[in-house]
Amino acid sequence: MFCRGSGNESPTGPCDSGFLCLGGASAPAPTDGVTGAPCPRGFYCPAGSYSAVPCPKGTFSERSGLGEQSECQRCSPGFYCAEPGLTAVSGPCLSGFFCLEGSPDVTPVAEGYGDLCPPGHYCENGTAAPAACPAGTHRPQTGGRGRQDCVTCPAGWFQDHTGQTECKPCPARFYCPSPHQEAGGVVTPVTCPQGYFCPGDAPLDSPVPCPRGTYSSTEGLSTADECWVCPAGHFCGSDGLTQPTGPCAAGFLCHIRAVVPNPVDDSTGSLCPPGAFCQAGIIAGECSPGYYCSGGSTSPEGVLCPAGFYCPKGSHTPFPCEAGTFSSAAGNSHRGNCTSCLAGFFCQGEGVVQPEICPSGHFCPPGTSLAQQFPCPPGTLLPLPGATSPEDCLLCPAGLFCALPGLSEPTGPCQEGFHCSPGSSSPNGTGITMQMESDEGSICPTGFYCPVGTSYPVPCPPGTFSSTPGLTRAEQCQPCPGGLWCGRAGMTQIADALLCEGRYVCVGGSVSPRPGDGIMGYLCPPGHSCPAGSALEVPCEAGTYSSSSGAANCSLCPAGTMCPSDGMQEPALCPLGHFCPVGTALPLPCPTGTLGQMAGAPSQASCSPCPTGHYCNSPGASQPQGRCEQGYFCQGGASSLAPQPSAELPQNGPCPTGHYCPPGTLSPLPCPTGTVRNLTGGVSIESCFSCPGGYYCDGEGLDTPSGPCDAGFYCPSDSSSTTPHTFMCTKGHFCPQGSPLPLPCPTGQYQPTAGSDSCIPCRPGFYCEQAVVGDPLACPPHTFCPAATMVPQPCPDGTFTPPGQGGLREERECLSCPPGRYCRAGQIKGVCAAGYLCVSGSSEFTPLERVLAEGEVCEWGVQCAGACPAGFYCEEGTERAMPCPDNTVRSSPGASSLSDCLPCPPTHWCREGGAVLHACPVGHYCDGVADYESGGRPGPRKCPVFTYRPTPSAGSKGDCHPCPPGTFCNSTGLSHYSGLLCPPGFWCSGSSPPVPCPAGTFRAQPGAADVTQCEPCDPGTYCPDPRATGVPNTAGIPCRASYQCPAGSAQETLCLAGFYCGPQTGEPPPCPLGYMCPQGSHTHSSPQQQCSFPFFCPVGSSAKLACPGGFMPVNSTGLRASLESSCVPCQAGTYRPALASVLQCQPCPPGYHCPAGAESPSSHPCPAGYFCPPGSASPLPCPPGFYGNRTNLEAVEECQTCPASTFNHLPAQTACFPCGSSATSVQGSSSCSCIGRKRAFQPSDGSCLCQTGFVFYNQLDFKSSSADSRLDCQPEVSKRCGGGEVRLASSQECVCVCVFR
């Protein structure tokens, strides 16, 4: 107040605003500093102030004289004012926060003053508005303090906007490289380069190279399937190729996807297939005739066909000349080049180069394939090799037999007792196969024997007989049987023999009834018996004996002795442990359980029982085997260490119950008092069990307890009780009869007295613990105790009792938990958590039950509590919910403070002061973020390029749909993509700019969604790489003449050799007959392309072809189009090499022969046995009497003459045949002369046989006409046939006419 002037009864009035009136002021605006002063800086002074009021927190004042609070200056944006009465700001806002105007705190979190720096932004010291993280970075958390807190997008991710909380994955067909520290993250994805692909299924920091076996010259691929497959004939040997590595190696065939120039996996390629040759990775043609290509061939002349084989055109392996044929020349091209095997020789198996001479015992007609294919039949033989027919086989000689086919000498002599005619195949005169005989061999009669060659049977001598015919020697006569004697010769049956006398032995062949010579028989020896007719002395059987010679019978062994073996001469004494009755062979052992302690015992009665405590388990024992086993009692006569009782020995066996038996005990020992054993077999005192619990045992040797323990007492199992009152039952327990231990009183019962057999129930309001001694305990607070309670039961959760209140008898005496609190175990545990409302009966700090409607009464036992309802917030321990203020929203329950009432949520925007949420408009998204980009006022934002939003309520940029493939959305805020199709010549993924169709493809219509919708360029046109031309491919460019453009061509390709290409050629036609088309031909009919003499041009020729080897050109009219019309084979006797400068066929040189079509004489050397003069078409044979043992003979004079004692009756032979031992010859002979007269030489086997009508006799005086010999032959004289007989022409023998009727 101020008092103007003097004499004032009251103050004049209040001091002016902006001034202080301290006292004694005479003016409303004092400035003297004593009575008053202007209001100081940092304060304001309303009218009538005697003290200054400080400017509140969040404001300051740099000037004095302020009169109202509104004149205090609000703290500057980016700064804070923490104290009242400030004259300047306190300082800049802390990094990680932004401060709006009037911030009272360095880290403001209150609405209207600032907040933590939002995600996607950073706030340095003194930030008034958050700065957005630049493109290429992101920040998902709040509180960014600087640019360094913006996280660079990692490899495989990018971000083309600022202020973002996350990065975008790199799209398909692009890659996002690893970030550089200086440059930051990727803002715009990089197009996938040539040779690589960039999938979109996982973020990539680098493109993935096209795998080996593929390549790509196009950018922007998204999958490995878009990489171009390596073409046939080429290989792609590394990853990331833009073109094939090169052509494949010669000798290999490359399919598609080859990764090496020499593939062998049979999938991408392989060795050149057999029968063909390969160059530059493709099949160049078939293997030439006369050669074979086994695989991997680089030339048509792979390997020369070997001798013994032939190789047609395209052979992958030589074909062997079949069995029965041969070929000695190499380079054969046809099956007809194989020659049939010569007569007298064989060609075994396939691929024969030179025939082998037919072996002895066999004959070989022309074409024979096996050495043993044609054997001479049984009954014949053939000693020399080289036979050609079955007529060369000879009859088996008389007296011998030839049993098998294919023999070169007889099998052996005829069997004894028989004679064999010529041609016999059996040793006994049967089985004759080659000729008939007039009579068969006669078998020797009984009583006789017939050696070899014998005419009459010889009688068996005395002492023998024979009942079997056909004997061959005296040794086969049977001796007179043992026990009989035969006194005369020629006996035929055993019935004629007589019995030998008793006491003698007739061994066999005996001629006397009492033989004593030791050969035919002898006197019966001691230890044996010999009855009449004995063939052998009989040893006395075991149990008998004979002490002198000549006994007919044996005597029984006396009692007490034994005769253990056959042939005993004296009895032996019976041994210890045994007894021997009369006639004992082996001593009988005393049985088990007994002992034999006396030698010479006559009966079992002499055996004594085993002593007590021991056992005798072995028969024939004289001493016990040991003491009986523990746990067993042996009364006497025990036969085992663990005996069992029997009727004779009832006490033997397991130790009886109530006892124990140590080893060898003489009697069972009783278990002591206080123990019991109810099992047999006790071994020691430890085997006796303590008396069982609840029972007593008052005597020795018990097998059951004496009785149960009395009621009120207990008998423990380990105390060996001897009385029914062992221990008295303790307090708090009860003991019924037979108790092993005191039993605690059961739940809710007690017993204050010892020695009881029952318990007393507990009363309500009290509890009785188990084994409690004394009176029941009162139920404590927070619990209740109904009747018979052992342990007090806690009040249920959600109820309580006051701390001093106890003795509750039932559950409903517990009180419901009060509002704002939660109760457990009968106690109030604390206040309910913030965000929850507890009305009554809550048992949880964070209850989840429903909240009752207002006005409803909560019943006892029901939890009336739950999360704070939506639209409200509930602080800790609140008793009622507080509503959220205006301009905020809480859509879910559980708000715990005013700060949980949130601003309008994303997908909506809220008008100022309104409570209604409005859906975000189409083409936009609403994320609710107030940032630099939104100017501090969150609202609808336009969807970015390549996206659209057709419906409202988008809450983030991610709710903007990516435009589908085939569209180009090149503006923001789109609500649809219709009319925005990808332009022609391009394809569009929808998420990136249009990509030109790759080289070799085009697109005429708009809307391509994938590179696969770019169509391959039409045949006859090509589509270049638009990156090189700068122009998209909307149609193909016509191909020029001399070039070919298959479908999908990216450039013109020079026309292939052997083809011609006019304008707009896709697949070129082959060059026609008679013309050649080199690479790059645009026509086929120019004069330079027509084939002229001496060349020819088949279809598809790229150059003129010369006539092959073995052919010469002919000058004919018309087109020279084929080998057949332009070349003729060389005539037989001439040849022409391939590529020869001389056009005519040349004469074949001497020493060689040239068949028609021969390319070289070296392929046809003159074979052994032949000679070839100049101009030979085929070899000429060396004549008979000569041979040729080497090749390349040029004239007949070079054939050699056969030496003396040899001959050659055939042409073309490589050696001469020997004359044999029965003939001779001079040099150069074609036949041999027999030494014996009247003999004819046989060239087939070199033998000399008698001429027809002549025979000879050998050293055995056997007649023969068909055997080889040096002996002279003489006219054959046959006996005159009798009446009714005729002579056989084959054998000259007389036979009865009756055999032919």
UniProtKB/TrEMBL annotation:
<dbReference type="GO" id="GO:0005576">
    <property type="term" value="C:extracellular region"/>
</dbReference>
<dbReference type="InterPro" id="IPR002557">
    <property type="entry name" value="Chitin-bd_dom"/>
</dbReference>
<feature type="domain" description="Chitin-binding type-2">
    <location>
        <begin position="712"/>
        <end position="759"/>
    </location>
</feature>
<dbReference type="GO" id="GO:0008061">
    <property type="term" value="F:chitin binding"/>
</dbReference>
<protein>
    <submittedName>
        <fullName>Multiple epidermal growth factor-like domains protein 6</fullName>
    </submittedName>
</protein>
<dbReference type="InterPro" id="IPR011641">
    <property type="entry name" value="Tyr-kin_ephrin_A/B_rcpt-like"/>
</dbReference>
<dbReference type="Pfam" id="PF07699">
    <property type="entry name" value="Ephrin_rec_like"/>
</dbReference>
